[in-house]
Design a protein that fits this description.
Layout lengths: L1 E5 L10 E11 L10 E14 L2 E13 L6 E13 L22
Antiparallel strand pairs: 1-2, 2-3, 3-4, 4-5
Length: 107
């Protein structure tokens, strides 16, 4: 689960800097796993920028990973850089509807 918020204005458009905060819980349900199914938890805070089909995000990630030893956990603090590129030759359909809500983002 992640939330993006533009740093300027109220909409997430191209060439708009944004901040993103997120959290993931990864679970493992393999037959050999008994007891704790938690594989790891990831929490991050990043600044991002999108231009065209490329999105750049950089910031901090905290990972909480249970160890194979009972009641032992590993904590990782990491600087991260994510680069995302949207491939595809088809031009997205243009929307004529005006969106004023904060969470809307055109593809």
């Amino acid at each position: 689960l992640a939330f993006r918020r533009p740093l300027t204005g109220l909409r997430l458009w191209d060439e708009t800097p944004f901040v993103v905060v997120g959290n993931e819980f990864l679970l493992n349900f393999a037959p050999q796993i008994t007891g704790n199914q938690l594989d790891q938890t990831r929490t991050w805070l990043m600044l991002g920028y999108q231009t065209g089909k490329i999105t750049l995000q950089g910031g901090y990630m905290y990972r909480y990973v249970p160890s194979t030893t009972p009641a032992t956990f590993n904590h990782y603090h990491t600087a991260v850089l994510w680069v995302t590129h949207a491939f595809g030759g088809a031009k997205p359909a243009e929307s004529t509807q005006d969106h004023d809500d904060l969470l809307h983002r055109d593809p």
